[in-house]
């Protein structure tokens, strides 16, 4: 192996890309570096039919804290190609990885990150104990070990249960392109004349990836035509005679949940070959490094930081197999209006099931009391959900201190009753600001965070049976909750693409403190107090406590339920709104305040 050293400019920006050439066997590999060479080295390996440009977005982010290296694999991009097809054998690809690692980080092992065929070829040195000491950690994205896949297939054929047969059928369907690449001559011709020139359009149509500068490269047709040999030389021989290949270093497998080519089932059972395994899901398609560079970079950085000695993040703790002993262990739940009532009961319910809970309320003392009753895994915050700027500061503080939440419960709300003609514009603004815009702020601000985070999640919005139960005395409140119900349906449709569920919870009469703070429009202070006391006694006689609503909220998250009527009267009203709307409109004339 020979290399051409580069002069590294002093105080160079991490975005400056430095190039060198590494000779390995008969090929010259074009190697590209960013960041400070004294920092830990992360080596990025691309797959088929890509080049090092696949990693542009990921590399720029990682280079802020690491020495980032990537290269064009043999026969791709600026690297030279072997003289004949035998030059694409897996053992030679493994030699390339180690040659680059030795050139760019001769004294320290590298953190290896690979995608697609890059991952497949990197399993070779990762599981080869003669050279694996040169690798400190391995992150694999959409590229399993062919030996592991061979054992995976054999295990399912030995025990052909319906579940195993479904998994096999799913992967056989996903792998259609593997069979096509076995056909002589035709794949090469198609890549050079049809597929290669239109690859960017195909990525946009199939994967939803719009054109990214530098990807794909102009040489993609010729690169892919040569790279077809990867499929012909390295798949079926491994599947027919899989070896026992184990890994000693920490391994992180990132599973894009919308991968059209590599099924999630292939990651099952890998723990029998790897002692230190983290298995993480990313809501993305096959080309996740291009479509979700921020999420991929974050996952890599969290993993490398931990291998370097830092504590595991909550996301890493979830990914570590067998670490959770309770259903919501290592999940972060944010609950607004958690100082009392349904919010308080919900915070306690999630904490009881292992979650860490952010207890938010307009009344900081109430939030602190709730958090104290839960224990050290609860964190009190003060926030006015109606204030967008305050909600953004709150969300930023939560993310900075505790991370992006997995579950957000938009519970904060106020009560209002009375005749429509007695309800002032100020009354309308107040109830809509809190009950509707408070939920809008929670969905929009935390929803954007969760979507960018890339690991899915769930949002729960507290609506009410009033959302579909018209009443002459609850026009403002019912309207605000009906808007929350519709908002939830709309947001659910949009965030589904990000793996984020949305549930609308519709309680009926629940014995909470809301009756003591409800405003009765058109009433003087004395009448106001009388109506509050009357409502409080009526709700207390109903005997349906907030703990039962909290149980339904937890179950809604568990099931991914869309709309959840809670109390019996809420369920009856839901039925009536669908099948007897005329009866519901007639009943609306009854004055419930009397």
From TrEMBL:
<comment type="similarity">
    <text>Belongs to the short-chain dehydrogenases/reductases (SDR) family.</text>
</comment>
<dbReference type="InterPro" id="IPR002347">
    <property type="entry name" value="SDR_fam"/>
</dbReference>
<dbReference type="InterPro" id="IPR000073">
    <property type="entry name" value="AB_hydrolase_1"/>
</dbReference>
<dbReference type="InterPro" id="IPR020904">
    <property type="entry name" value="Sc_DH/Rdtase_CS"/>
</dbReference>
<dbReference type="Pfam" id="PF00561">
    <property type="entry name" value="Abhydrolase_1"/>
</dbReference>
<protein>
    <submittedName>
        <fullName>SDR family oxidoreductase</fullName>
    </submittedName>
</protein>
<dbReference type="InterPro" id="IPR036291">
    <property type="entry name" value="NAD(P)-bd_dom_sf"/>
</dbReference>
<dbReference type="InterPro" id="IPR029058">
    <property type="entry name" value="AB_hydrolase_fold"/>
</dbReference>
<dbReference type="Pfam" id="PF00106">
    <property type="entry name" value="adh_short"/>
</dbReference>
<feature type="domain" description="AB hydrolase-1">
    <location>
        <begin position="40"/>
        <end position="148"/>
    </location>
</feature>
<keyword id="KW-0560">Oxidoreductase</keyword>
């Amino acid at each position: 192996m020979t290399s051409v050293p580069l002069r590294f400019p002093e105080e160079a920006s991490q975005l400056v890309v430095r190039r060198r050439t590494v000779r390995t066997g008969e090929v010259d590999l074009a190697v590209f570096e960013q960041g400070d060479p004294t920092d830990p080295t992360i080596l990025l390996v691309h797959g088929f039919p890509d080049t090092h440009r696949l990693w542009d977005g990921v590399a720029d982010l990682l280079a802020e804290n690491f020495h980032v290296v990537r290269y064009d694999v043999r026969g791709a991009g600026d690297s030279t190609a072997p003289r004949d097809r035998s030059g694409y054998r897996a053992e030679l690809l493994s030699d390339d990885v180690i040659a680059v690692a030795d050139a760019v980080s001769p004294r320290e092992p590298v953190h290896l990150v690979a995608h697609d065929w890059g991952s497949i070829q990197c399993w070779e040195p990762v599981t080869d104990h003669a050279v694996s000491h040169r690798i400190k950690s391995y992150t694999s994205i959409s590229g399993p070990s062919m030996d592991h896949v061979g054992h995976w297939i054999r295990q399912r054929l030995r025990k052909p249960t319906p579940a195993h047969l479904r998994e096999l059928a799913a992967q056989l369907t996903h792998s259609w392109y593997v069979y096509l690449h076995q056909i002589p001559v035709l794949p090469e011709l198609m890549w050079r004349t049809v597929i290669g020139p239109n690859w960017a359009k195909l990525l946009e149509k199939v994967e939803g990836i719009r054109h990214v500068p530098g990807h794909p490269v102009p040489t993609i047709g010729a690169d892919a035509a040569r790279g077809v040999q990867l499929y012909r030389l390295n798949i079926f021989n491994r599947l027919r005679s899989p070896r026992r290949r184990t890994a000693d270093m920490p391994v992180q497998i990132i599973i894009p949940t919308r991968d059209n080519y590599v099924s999630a089932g292939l990651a099952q059972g890998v723990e029998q070959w790897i002692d230190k395994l983290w298995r993480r899901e990313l809501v993305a398609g096959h080309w996740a490094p291009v479509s979700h560079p921020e999420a991929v970079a974050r996952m890599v950085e969290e993993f490398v930081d931990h291998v370097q000695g830092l504590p595991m993040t909550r996301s890493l703790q979830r990914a570590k197999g067998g670490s959770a002993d309770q259903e919501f262990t290592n999940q972060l739940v944010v609950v607004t209006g958690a100082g009392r009532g349904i919010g308080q009961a919900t915070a306690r319910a999630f904490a009881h099931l292992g979650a860490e809970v952010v207890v938010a309320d307009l009344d900081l003392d109430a939030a602190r009391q709730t958090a104290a009753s839960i224990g050290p895994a609860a964190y009190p915050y003060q926030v006015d959900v109606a204030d967008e700027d305050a909600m953004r500061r709150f969300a930023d503080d939560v993310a900075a201190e505790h991370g992006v939440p997995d579950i957000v419960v938009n519970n904060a709300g106020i009560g209002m009753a009375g005749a429509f003609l007695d309800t002032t514009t100020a009354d309308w603004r107040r109830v809509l600001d809190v009950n509707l815009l408070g939920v809008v702020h929670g969905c929009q601000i935390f929803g954007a965070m969760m979507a960018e985070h890339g690991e899915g999640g769930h949002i729960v919005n507290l609506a009410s049976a009033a959302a579909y139960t018209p009443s002459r005395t609850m026009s403002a409140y019912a309207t605000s909750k009906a808007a929350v119900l519709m908002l939830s349906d709309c947001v659910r449709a949009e965030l589904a693409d990000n793996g984020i569920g949305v549930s609308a919870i519709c309680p009926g009469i629940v014995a909470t403190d809301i009756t003591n703070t409800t405003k009765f429009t058109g009433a003087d202070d004395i009448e106001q107090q009388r109506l509050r006391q009357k409502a409080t006694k009526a709700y207390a006689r109903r005997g349906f406590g907030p703990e039962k609503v909290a149980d339904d909220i937890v179950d809604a998250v568990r099931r991914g339920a869309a709309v959840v009527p809670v109390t019996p009267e809420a369920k009856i009203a839901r039925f009536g709104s669908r099948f007897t709307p005329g009866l519901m409109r007639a009943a609306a004339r009854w004055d419930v305040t009397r």
